[in-house]
Amino acid sequence: ETFDEIRNNKDIDAVYIGLPNSMHAEYTIRAAKAGKHVLCEKPMATSVKDCEAMIQACRDANVKLFIAYRCQYEPVNLRVMELIRNGSIGKVEAIESANGFDIHAGEWRLDPKLAGGGPLMDMGVYSLNACRYLTGEEPVSLEGYAGVVDHDGRFKGVEENLSWSMKFPSGAVASCSTTYGANQPGFYRVHGSSGMIHAEPAFAYQGIKMKADIKGQEPIEMEEQEKDPSQFAVEADAFAQCIWENKTPKTSGEEGLRDMRYVETIYKSAGLSLG
Fold this sequence. Notes:
Blueprint: E1 14-17, H1 24-33, E2 37-40, H2 48-61, E3 65-67, H3 75-85, E4 92-100, H4 112-115, H5 119-135, E5 141-147, E6 161-167, E7 173-179, E8 184-192, E9 195-199, E10 209-214, E11 220-223, H6 230-244, H7 253-269
Helix pairs in contact: 1-2, 2-7
């Protein structure tokens, strides 16, 4: 009830929004109108329309909008991107990725009015975003399939399982899956013409590690050394740097908007809708 009063507190420069997905848009817009920069959790919102409204509100207020894609700032993922960009594994041919967990009954994530959707909105967005930052490309086609296996009352409003495929302009293809019905450690495998990179766990809060097998070379291995909450500190530092130096965040509102457009396309292909 008193949130909007932050406009009168000059000690507050920025707001972190870690609310349920459907509340991201409202509180981002209210924070922007109060003149505060915003670090918003992913998924950015539960519709393309809301994402666009968030971007416009922050633009009108001249404040930064930073979406919390922490893996894009995490050292092991950055090393993987470097190996791909410098051609170490040749041309990217295919990617496989998955991420999910066995959800407990009664969690807010099972309420479509709060979550917007099922595991794609929560865990699957990691794989979706990863395929984009790994290839450095935007998908030109997406196709999804959803289903429910456990008819135990948990999945009356959202999907339990969802798999989708993507094709990129280079010809690279990706196959991803996410679930709320089984423990599915987050991982990705990038298959290149000259090697392969396997990251597992790839999206965890700590202990991320990868192994690169490159033709004619010794394997390259790397594991995150710092412990939770180091990833969040790096993310927050990047946010602060953008504010201090008046730079556009790498993971801006536009980045979140792109993912939401792809999410809508995947859900539509699978015969589902958001919210």
